[in-house]
Amino acid sequence: MWKAEDSIELYGIENWGNGYFSVNDKGNIIIFPNKDRTQSVDIMDLIEEIEKSRDLEFPVLLRFPQMLEDRINEITGSFLGSIKEFSYKGTYQPIFPMKVNQRKEVIEYIIKYGAKHKLGLEVGTKAELLAALSLGLPKEAPLICNGYKDEDYLRLALSIHNINNIIIVVDLFEEIFDILKYADIMGIVPRIGMRVKLFARGSGRWVESGGESAKFGLSTSEALELMKILKERGITDSLKMIHFHIGSQITDIRTIKNAMNEAARIYAKARKMANIEYLNVGGGLSVDYNGSNTATPSSANYSLREYANDVVYTIQKICEDEDVPCPTIVSESGRAIAAYHSMLIFKIIGKKNAKDSLLRTPKEEDPIQIDDLCSAFKEINIENYKEHYHDALQYRDELYDSFNLGNIGLEERAKGETLFWMVCKKAAFLAKQAEDDSDEFLELKKLVSQKYIGNFSLFQSVPDMWGVEQIFPTIPLHRLNEMPSERGRIVDITCDSDGEIKRYAGDSEGLEYLEMHSLMENEDYYLGIFLLGAYQDTLGDFHNLLGCAHEVHVMAENDDWYICQKVEGDTCKKLLDFFNYETKDYIWEIMDRCVTKKEYIHKKEQEVIEAELNRTLKGYTYFITKPNGTAKSKVDGPDLQRPEALR
Ligand SMILES: *Cc1c(COP(=O)(O)O)cnc(C)c1O
Q1: Which of 62, 155, 344, 636 has the fewest C-beta atoms lying within 10 Å of its C-beta?
Q2: Per the omega criterion (within 30 degrees of 0), is the bond before 59 cis?
Q3: Are the C-beta atoms of residues 619 and 571 closer than 8 Å to each other?
Q4: Which of 318-327, 417-426, 579-588 has the highest mean predicted lDDT (pLDDT)?
Q5: Which of 71, 122, 249, 538 most suits a substitution to test ligand 1, by most atoms within 8 Å of the C-beta?
Q6: Strand (E) positions, 312-407?
Q7: What is the pLDDT of residue 540?
Q8: Is the distance from CB of 211 to CB of 256 less than 8 angstroms?
Q9: Which CATH class is domain 368-446?
Q10: Residue 626 has what pLDDT?
């Protein structure tokens, strides 16, 4: 009998879940937000509560703030563990890079949970700096200013030098002149970092972020020139930090070792010229999204502890070798902190490719191709499937030609399509049995696989799945004590053929299909996409004007759990406003157009139009499956936090 353990194994939950997810005896996904096995959230209880409260429709994005806390503790703990193990004479400073997730609620959680480690923030633009300042970072927590900086950015950063632990990183050599100019005008001694270009490059998708041709960072001669400039001004000690970042999701530990070696050497040489306090190793700490523990793009071939050990050990060895003091090690592991904490829940609202229908016996007057397709279907077997499939392709083409010439009718066309489809399904099945992985039959397998329509937008909620073909674990959230009986692929509700989940977690390349359960009448089927906390929230776009999903934030406590915050997603109105449709006047404009039309429109009819417009404008942008009326009325309830602007 199929058990929960079989599903854990099938979907690789323990390989990618980092101890946060499992399956209980009821066959439901359970979540341990702080890894404490006595404090779990049964996802179906949570879904039931959301359904019952009737104020939010699916899709819903879940956030588990405690996972952010746990990751901050885990990463900091690993570095402190390595520091202790190697008796490293220095300490560790965690930083969260804002670009990984700028959502206000998320940054608030991170600041709160990071406070005991003095966790700081890294910003890359003026807007990110303003956002960071608005949230009241503790004074001792570093605020690292990266990115290309104009006058406004620099003046703002300098103006708060005395009340925040600002470090301005020179990303582009010429910036140093502006920094010094405005610092002089404002009477401030700046704290400066410099980003260096390493020869060592990243691996995987973001390989271009590092290496000699990287977009950011100073060459060796520029770095020397910068130190000379500071020295001439007598402010050598302004240089507080050496920084590098060779890219995100570095999947191969050897790349990290190489970069660390080079960077530590640069630090040690520079340390002899200036009293540099920090060595900032940037981001890059990988998340094993597909759970394969390999150097493939959605994975990592190393553990967190191995990463920390390599960083600490390399820096120590080189500092000893060069006889310089050990720096405070700074890391900006954004992905590794944020990825786990959020997931999207959506429902399957239908099937595509449901082309099976009853095989009707051919009639006398049917065209010959129908007869032929029928025989192909009856005779196809593992010996001859190729031949019969190729024949079927030809019969189908002939049939369409016949239709286009007006020789056969819709009835015959339909019969032919059904038969052809049935031959394809059988051929695909036989090809699989024969372990035929020729391109032709792989394509066919894809073609005949069942497509399930999920009520979500891949472009809004999982943009990297589309943009960089990253794998995010996508699995059913319940019935996991039942053996899955179907194989399918999930498509979203956008009108874009790219809105399809093409790879599923399970092996290093990603599986092409998801093992699913057959849909039941009168019972919703819920799926989850996991590990969405890094980069997905703000890279998402409004394809087809589908907006942000509703959010539910959940905490576990005392053997129980509770919803600590709900954030309402976008309404149609909010999206139209965002794209300048100014819905304030929208209804009136449409109404105007209606009445100026020649035909007289009755007042009653006008009222109906107005009511429908209003209702749709106020509603969720996604497919609404609840009965109308009930779902909407509580949206204005007092427990909902309404974000000010479109998020
Ligand atoms: C993007 C970025 C990071 C975050 O990298 P992760 O791989 O997500 O940890 C850190 N530092 C800098 C300078 C970045 O640009």
Answers
A1: 636
A2: yes
A3: yes
A4: 318-327
A5: 122
A6: 328-331, 342-352
A7: 86
A8: no
A9: mainly alpha
A10: 60
What is the structure's pLDDT at 636?
37
- Please give the single-letter amino acid code of residue 400: Y
User: What is the torsion angle, in degrees rounded to the nearest 10, for the CA atoms of residue 31, residue 533, residue 195 and residue 118?
Assistant: -50
**Residue of minimum CA distance from atom 4 in ligand 1:** 283
CATH topology assigned to domain 4-63+342-353+452-567? Lyase, Ornithine Decarboxylase; Chain A, domain 1 (2.40.37)
How is the chain split into domains, by residue range? 4-63+342-353+452-567, 90-332, 368-446, 582-646
Residue 366's pLDDT is what? 86
- Tell which wins on pLDDT, 594 or 496: 496
For ligand 1, mutation pick of 332, 337, 464, 470 (most atoms within 8 Å of CB): 332
Place of tokens 């927590």: 141
SS3 18: coil
Q: List, as one string, the DSSP characters of 158-186.
A: HHTTTTSEEEEEESSTTHHHHHHHHHHHH
Q: CA-CA distance, 423 to 388, in Å (whole number)?
A: 8
Q: What is the pLDDT of residues 64-117, one digit of tens each?
A: 999 999 999 999 999 999 999 999 999 999 999 999 999 999 999 999 999 999
pLDDT at 644 over 70: no
Using only C-alpha atoms, the chain has a radius of gyration, in whole angstroms, of 29
Strand partners, 553: 63, 565
Residue 561: helix, strand or coil by DSSP? Answer: strand
Q: State which ligand 1 atom lies nearest to the alpha carbon of 535.
A: 8
pLDDT average, residue stretch 250-266: 95
Q: For residue 430, what is the enclosing H or E element? A: helix 410-433
Strands 192-195 and 60-63: unpaired
